[in-house]
Specification:
flat; binds iron/sulfur cluster; Rossmann fold; alpha/beta; Cobalt-precorrin-4 Transmethylase, domain 1; 13 strands; single chain; 5-stranded parallel β-sheet
Length: 305
């Protein structure tokens, strides 16, 4: 069997930064450091930070007053910041700067009097954070593109969740553009999402089956599996070797392997080792060299070298 290892894969700059933020906060302030929502959607990452003293909670009101809290990479609604202030929490914000950009756009378009449509998945943490920034209408393309009965000349601005399928989003955008020809369309799909989906399409041309390494609650990992399936190749989401079922590999000579933006490389290597391939071939579409600076709270207190 041959493994075709796709690249870029794994951690994006926003995930690296969010994990670093929790690790640095633990060093600087000592445990416990509370984390509002899973810092990134991967149980292996969460468990390793919890082993060092991080405590993950879903509601800011669960956190004892005066504690240190890190807000997750997915972004949070203003209400969470208000709750944190009321409890006198020290907030360190690990929201990915590319999500913050969407928040800023939402507030600006609202100030400019535009009506906002967000393409995103109902209930996802990032969508909850973005929808808290300004009044907006959610279009979840999985439910069909249901558009409001606004005048066709309405000034509409269209934002997107950062981790959606490039192709599904393009279809939803086209439907909105047909209905509101003057709509201002922002493409907020992030570079990591776009790059990994391009890799999975290239893998689908060469592999008999694709394994996407990542967690079930990770939006970008689920989209990778769907993109592979849409290319007509069987694809499975596994978060480690123990989740590979023998039937996934039935007769497969070439197994494509890719991981989502929240998946540690150690899980990819564990899967590749478990496959015991005769050959590993690398399929690399791009090099990623993006990094994000740490939040101000941690930069300012960094010890001088
Ligand atoms: S997937 Fe994209 S938006 Fe999300 S944390 Fe990574 S870089 Fe940021």
């Amino acid at each position: 069997m041959e493994v075709i290892l796709g690249s870029p894969r794994g951690f994006c700059a926003g995930v690296v930064r969010a994990i670093d933020v929790v690790a640095l906060a633990l060093q600087r302030f000592g445990p416990p450091v509370y984390v509002k929502h899973q810092i990134v959607h991967n149980p292996t990452v969460v468990a390793s930070l919890e082993a060092k003293g991080a405590i993950t909670v879903e509601d800011v009101e669960e956190i004892p007053p005066g504690s240190v809290v890190v807000f997750s990479a997915h972004g949070s609604p203003p209400e969470d910041y208000r709750k944190a202030q009321a409890r006198n929490l020290r907030v360190i914000d690990a929201t990915c700067p590319l999500v913050t950009k969407v928040h800023n756009e939402a507030r600006r378009f609202h100030r400019e009097g535009k009506r906002i449509i967000l393409i995103g998945h109902r209930g996802h943490q990032e969508v909850r954070g973005t929808m808290g920034q300004a009044p907006m209408l959610l279009v979840d393309e999985r439910e069909g593109v249901h558009l409001p009965d606004w005048d066709a000349n309405t000034e509409v601005a269209v934002l997107t969740q950062t981790t959606l399928s490039v192709d599904d989003t393009a279809r939803a955008v086209e439907a909105i553009r047909q209905r509101f020809p003057k709509a201002l369309i922002r493409n907020d799909l992030c570079y990591a999402t776009t790059n990994r989906q391009a890799v999975v399409k290239a893998l689908a041309k060469e592999a008999d089956v694709i394994l996407v390494i990542g967690a079930r609650n990770s939006s970008n990992c689920n989209r990778l599996r769907e993109v592979a399936s849409a290319q007509g190749v069987p694809a499975y989401l596994v978060n480690g070797p123990e989740e590979i079922r023998p039937e996934y590999l039935n007769g497969a000579q070439r197994v494509g392997v890719i991981s989502g933006a929240s998946t540690p490389e150690s899980l990819v290597q564990a899967v590749v080792n478990a496959l015991r391939p005769q050959r590993i071939r690398h399929l690399t579409l791009a090099e990623e060299d993006i990094t994000f600076v740490l939040p101000r709270e941690l930069r300012e207190e960094a010890p001088t070298p």
